[in-house]
Specification:
Length: 103
């Protein structure tokens, strides 16, 4: 909007104020392992939604976390083999596992 348009609107009672930048982008450097090598991914979005997305994909916020071995955890909810009782994390894994009982 140019100054002439603003002048006309002011004459009709409109007031213009500067709005602060409400959208502050938070950015961070994430790290991940690619083929055994630690890769640095600088300047990625770090708002809460993006942060959770990157962490769920295996990215870490510092290199030290990548070097520490991750403890194995059993799935809380999984798919249980009706034959042997083994718990598998996905339905596809259960399907493949159940084929071993068919032989």
């Amino acid at each position: 909007m140019d100054k002439e348009q603003q002048k006309v609107l002011r004459e009709h009672g409109y007031v213009f104020t500067e709005a602060p930048n409400l959208r502050r982008e938070t950015r961070a450097t994430f790290y991940r392992i690619d083929n055994g090598v630690i890769s640095e991914c600088p300047d990625l979005p770090a708002d809460p939604l993006s942060l959770q997305r990157y962490l769920n994909k295996g990215f870490k916020l510092n290199k030290v976390d990548l070097l520490q071995p991750q403890p194995f955890t059993h799935p809380q909810d999984g798919f249980v083999c009706e034959t042997c009782g083994k718990v598998l994390s996905t339905r596809l894994a259960l399907s493949g596992h159940s084929r071993t009982h068919q032989k």
